[in-house]
UniProtKB/TrEMBL annotation:
Entry-linked Pfam families: CNH
Domain of life: Eukaryota
GO cellular component: cytoplasm; membrane
Broad class of the protein's primary localization: cytoplasm
Record protein name field: CNH domain-containing protein
Intervals holding CHCR repeats: 482-656
Organism: Rotaria sordida
Compartment list: Cytoplasm
Record keyword Lipid biosynthesis present: no
Gene Ontology biological process terms, A to Z: autophagy; endosomal vesicle fusion; intracellular protein transport
Length: 777
């Protein structure tokens, strides 16, 4: 019976009709019978120069012409287990091929168009089930070990050395396999890991941790495709992470098919052949950037090109860095963004396009709230740093100084802007005077006019400026008095001239406190008067005063700071504007401020902790009651009860510790008319051993309280009933009265006629359209 082991040659064309499934139309263009009895174990197509197909079936290696599948005569090798073909051609259109034989030999041949010649052979101990060859050497594996061989030049074609064992598998369940990463670098399969190695057995890379034990894998830059049971796992070789999982049962082989810059993978199962098409590098980068995986996108772009020199010129790398830089910039990671901008020599105009409201340059900035302004300050500081760093390059462009001026208006002081204009005003167009007038920087506008020879306009500006210099002069006088150590007189000027917290006012509290920082006594006096006299209600001022009190207390002995400490405690109770968490963090650094700690917990509505400190630790029962009254101020009835019950619970918890003192404190608290209780709840929890006579005042207050509540409720209901009755009378009058609407009647609001039957009638009897009434109200 004639054996049939066939090789078919197909031409593939994607089916344009079935676009959803991406099926291919296959046309058989040639076939040949190899004449062997067993299926083909391995087939390799060598197109370039040779145009050959190498087949292995029934341990017989044969070579065919890839164009017509005709046998190449006299090229047959028997007893072959497996083979591999080098990816590098030799001179004269030849290529090296290594084979593993049943006789435990590793043979290296040189194959050309018509002949195959043995170059040398090596004896091995165990049959080699897989081998690979590249320009650096040979890698092979048996069922239990991996071997490497680096060929040497020797005229003797027989044993010219031995294989070096580089890794041994001790678990027989692990399938030995390997793949080429790049010339001289290979990946071996180990126990749930992938081990990178060279032919010398060294590795400069940590192993890849696999989720499942591989049956086979191949490398397709920059991904590793791993065949496991019923799945194809795709790992990134750049970060060793699993990126995709493709369910596929009965997968048998993975074959890499290079096509231009894209590596497609041919996968065959028992019944089908699949082509796994890789997305282009650009599409992969787009997906990574869209999901904010910026570092992965950069690594992918840079690793797509092996030459370091190309990194500074390759358009894909440059565009990826630019896009990552813009994303980082808009995410406020400006340091990282500037590094990328500098790396690709980005023109500053492209950064300007990323900052809203920067263009046009001669238009003023809009008014920002504090959150938005902080974002702009970060952006513009980064922009100016980049401009300054590359000033030698950028300053040749006509709008360089104009762009800097636009940024300086947000981030620099008025003095710095004036200094900048004095140097570079001649490089800035005169129409930028609108920006300077907008922020009332008249001095700067005059400098700009003067630099462009507009002397009449300069003089007019100075005349107007002179009329508005009074407050600036007064501030300068106060500053001069400080320098003359007349701190008390300077403080009086700053207090008397205060108007508001506008940034344009020289006497706003931020500017004054910044000026007074070198003068501690003057600063304290200004803050105390600013808080208690001027009623400045900013968290910065109130927090600064608290910190000054703390500094003074910590710098003195406990006997010298009693007055300051009393001021601090009163301020912590009365003020609602200091940063509680900031003060709490500082007070927690020492154990001297237990009372102050209790006051801060009260500000944070942590009443249990507050009264635990005051009652249990400090045992100051009267102070606890007074603070309970202070905390209840300006709160709702329910909130006042929460505060009072928290102190009541603290007293009850300490009753056994100080029975007499706590009993007196409880009786005094419950009789305090400034503290509000739910007496039904309170009476249930009072100690049972207390006598009726001791509870007389409490019961009397409870009775009066609930009687008052009952009378107030009845009164409110009666007033509501009267109001409801009045409204009902008005409603009935309106329903009884007739309103005549005709073509002579006009709407009181729009003076137009009524064309519908409905209208609104006001108390004075006038009528308006329904839609007009809605607009008015």
């Amino acid at each position: 019976m004639l054996a049939k082991c066939l090789v078919h040659k197909f031409s593939l064309q994607k089916n344009s009709i079935s676009s959803e499934t991406n099926e291919f139309e296959c046309h058989c263009t040639a076939s040949v019978n190899l004449g062997t009895r067993k299926p083909i174990g391995k087939i390799k197509v060598v197109i370039l120069s040779l145009h050959r197909v190498i087949t292995l079936s029934d341990n017989l290696l044969q070579v065919l012409n890839s164009d017509n599948l005709q046998f190449i005569s006299n090229i047959k090798l028997k007893n072959i287990i497996t083979f591999a073909v080098s990816n590098q051609f030799k001179q004269g259109a030849s290529i090296d091929m290594c084979v593993s034989t049943k006789r435990n030999k590793l043979q290296i041949y040189r194959l050309d168009r018509m002949n195959i010649n043995l170059i040398y052979e090596i004896s091995v101990h165990d049959p080699l089930i897989s081998i690979g060859i590249d320009e650096c050497g040979i890698l092979a594996c048996s069922k239990t070990a991996y071997f490497a061989y680096r060929p040497t030049i020797n005229n003797d074609r027989r044993s010219t050395g031995s294989l070096q064992t580089i890794f041994t598998l001790h678990d027989p369940s692990i399938v030995a396999c390997f793949t080429f990463i790049k010339p001289g670098e290979y990946l071996l399969s180990g126990p749930n890991i992938g081990i990178t190695t060279t032919l010398e057995g060294t590795s400069q890379r940590t192993p890849i941790m696999f989720i499942s034990q591989p049956n086979d894998f191949i490398y397709s830059h920059p991904y590793l495709l791993v065949r496991v049971k019923d799945y194809i796992h795709i790992y990134s070789y750049l970060d060793d992470q699993l990126k995709q999982e493709i369910p596929l049962k009965n997968c048998q082989t993975l074959i890499n098919i290079p096509e231009g810059n894209i590596n497609n993978i041919l996968i065959n199962t028992k019944d089908n052949i699949y082509l796994l098409e890789s997305l282009s590098i650009q599409e992969q980068i787009d997906q990574l950037l869209n999901t904010y995986r910026l570092q992965e996108a950069l690594i992918l772009a840079e690793n797509n090109f092996s030459s370091i020199e190309k990194h500074n010129t390759n358009s894909l790398i440059l565009s990826t860095k630019k896009r990552v830089g813009f994303i980082e910039f808009n995410s406020m990671n400006v340091i990282r963004a500037l590094h990328l901008f500098d790396d690709i020599d980005l023109d500053f105009h492209e950064i300007i396009l990323q900052i809203p409201n920067f263009l046009p340059l001669n238009s003023p900035w809009p008014d920002f709230d504090e959150n938005i302004k902080s974002r702009y300050i970060l952006w513009l500081n980064a922009f100016c740093d980049y401009m300054t760093k590359r000033s030698e390059e950028f300053s040749r462009q006509s709008d360089y100084y104009s762009s800097l001026l636009k940024a300086y208006l947000i981030i620099k002081s008025r003095e710095t802007i004036i200094e900048f204009l004095e140097k570079y005003a001649s490089y800035i167009p005169i129409d930028f005077h609108n920006l300077l007038f907008h922020i009332r920087l008249y001095h700067g506008a005059a400098i700009l006019y003067s630099a462009h020879g507009k002397h009449e306009q300069t003089i007019d500006i100075w005349k107007n400026v002179e009329l508005n210099l009074d407050r600036s002069l007064e501030f300068s006088v106060g500053k001069w008095l400080l320098e003359q150590h007349e701190e008390e007189l300077a403080t009086k000027i700053f207090i008397s001239k205060y108007q508001n917290e506008s940034n344009r006012d020289p006497f706003n509290s931020n500017k004054v406190t910044h000026l007074l920082k070198p003068y501690p006594t003057a600063l304290r006096n200004y803050l105390e008067q600013g808080v208690f006299k001027l009623m400045i209600e900013t968290d910065e001022i109130h927090t600064m005063l608290v910190n000054i009190y703390l500094d003074q207390i910590l710098s003195k002995s406990s006997d010298d700071n009693e007055q300051t400490r009393t001021k601090l405690q009163e301020f912590l109770v009365k003020s609602n504007f200091y940063r509680v968490q900031s003060v709490l963090n500082r007070i927690n650094q020492t154990k001297r401020f237990k009372r102050e700690l209790a006051l801060l917990y009260g500000k944070m509505n942590n009443f249990e902790q507050t009264f635990q400190i005051l009652v249990n630790e400090l045992e100051d029962f009267q102070y606890a009651e007074n603070y309970c009254v202070a905390l209840s101020y300006d709160k709702s009835s329910d909130d006042r009860k929460i505060v009072a019950h928290a102190l009541f619970n603290a007293f009850l918890a300490s009753l056994d510790k100080h029975p007499n003192e706590i009993t007196a404190a409880l009786l005094h608290l419950l009789c305090n008319n400034e503290v509000e209780f739910d007496f039904i709840e309170i009476l249930k929890r009072l100690p049972s051993q207390w006598s009726i006579s001791s509870l007389k005042d409490i019961l009397l207050r409870a009775t009066r309280t609930y009687s008052y509540i009952k009378r107030s409720t009845k009164l409110e209901i009666a007033l509501d009933r009267i109001q409801n009755e009045k409204l009902n009378i008005k409603l009935r009058k309106l329903k009884r009265s007739n309103v005549i609407i005709n073509e002579y009647r006009r709407c009181k609001n729009c003076l137009k006629q009524f064309y519908e039957a409905s209208c609104i009638v006001y108390q004075d009897g006038s009528q308006v359209h329904v839609h007009c009434a809605k607009q008015l109200n």
